[in-house]
Amino acid sequence: MGKRLAQQTEETRFQLQKGRMLRAAARCFNEKGYSGSSLRDVANILGLTDAALYYYVRNKEELVYLCYVRAAEVGRESLHRAIAEGRDGLDIVARYIRYHVEAMVGERGPVAIMSEIPSLKPEHREEILAVSREHGALFERILEQGIADGSIAPCDVRMTGNAIMGALNWVPKWFHGDASVAQQVVAEFPHILSAGLRPDN
Amino acid sequence: MGKRLAQQTEETRFQLQKGRMLRAAARCFNEKGYSGSSLRDVANILGLTDAALYYYVRNKEELVYLCYVRAAEVGRESLHRAIAEGRDGLDIVARYIRYHVEAMVGERGPVAIMSEIPSLKPEHREEILAVSREHGALFERILEQGIADGSIAPCDVRMTGNAIMGALNWVPKWFHGDASVAQQVVAEFPHILSAGLRPDN
DNA sequence: CGATTATTTTAATCTAGATTAAAATTTTTG
DNA sequence: CAAAAATTTTAATCTAGATTAAAATAATCG
Predict the structure, then answer these.
(1) CA–C1' span, A40 to C16, in Å?
(2) Residue A55 beta carbon within 7 A of nucleic strand D
(3) How far is CA B1 from CA B43, B52, B57, in A?
């Protein structure tokens, strides 16, 4: 108790620490894997003791769950921003890739890779899966829109979605905070994934 | 003891069971995550008891390690076959994607996603990382070759490699054995990842 | 078939790491 | 500054699941 009664400053402090914790956890999970990361590992990054994490979270499962909620939000916001700003289907796709990657390698990161959804407890699992499916479905609709408006060549939107999402989801696996690499990803990914490899187009 | 002295038939039987075990383990790890998969889960798939696995493997770490060795082999063979058969850089890339995907969704599968390299013991980790780096480097050289022969537009080969590898690595995450989906992946991925989304090319 | 070897199971351990409760410390607030 | 609330630590538990040893079963071979 106390969390509820806290004033502005307290809330902020609490939220800030919790946010730091989630990013520390995401980093651990991405780098060392879920099983390879003990709560002690996560806590150490914050200069805390493992037990301290229980002040912010009920248990490890909830920690993972919250990481995934954050990851889902980042993806969702990126896609919606792209939809709001993009001119046609292809432009929305390129923007989405750009925004999502920017978030992952920028201040919002690290973002957790959703590799352990099955170890979430049923309610959490269903929630994350639902959000995930929704995201995929929306992205596929964007692809269809692009095909309709002629900016994207006819294709299997399900497979194309899987391919692009896969490339995005894998980013946190090899990106570890190098600023110059961050620039490269942001500069190259949108083009690679939307324009392909062929010359002269 | 025994493994060494075994005759042809024995060796075959042993190897067969071990192979089944590795595929069962890969399936578990991909679906339920490493930490979410107990040896009991893996053994159950084979209709065995957890303890039985220790006849084939020293411990869980070695089980993961062997899964990764297999995964690396599949990738390596696919790339080398593509190099042997491809005409130019782009053709090699497309073939590699095709062969690798075919293997992953076909009889060779499931292939483990290498998500838990850090939890391998140092020697194993180094070995897998080395193979992995080598694979990435070779792929980048293919991209360079393609740029040189004009079949691939100039690009950041590191980032392009990361993008394509990411899309491939993610396949086992969403593919769960559906035959018709398998066809689609094989049919679409090479084109999506090498030709991109743009129309008229 | 009997003996030898291969494979699996049963039944204990053993252990890292998650979890908890109570105490200590730090921060905020009036 | 003193009291109250917030945060962290210390010091135990508690537990799932990995691991092991010995026994049981199945397969193979001469």
Answers:
(1) 12
(2) yes
(3) 22, 15, 13
Q: Report the 10 Å Cβ neighbour count for A70.
A: 18
Check if the beta carbon of residue B93 is closer than 8 Å to that of residue B142: yes
Rounded (5°) CA angle B118-B119-B121:
95
Render pLDDT for B74-127 as a digit per residue (tens, 0 to 9): 999 999 999 999 999 999 999 999 999 999 999 998 999 999 998 899 999 999
Reported as half-sphere exposure (CB side, CA atoms, 13 A), residue A118 has a value of 14
Query: Does residue B2 reach within 7 angstroms of strand C, measured from its CB?
Result: yes
Q: Quick one: closest CA in A to B156, which residue?
A: A188
- The domains of chain A, with CATH numbers, are 60-195 (1.10.357.10)
C9 nearest neighbour residue (CA to C1'): B49
Q: pTM, whole model, 2 decimals?
A: 0.91
Q: How many other CB atoms are found less than 10 A from the CB of residue A69? A: 16
Other Cβ atoms within 10 Å of B48 Cβ, number: 19
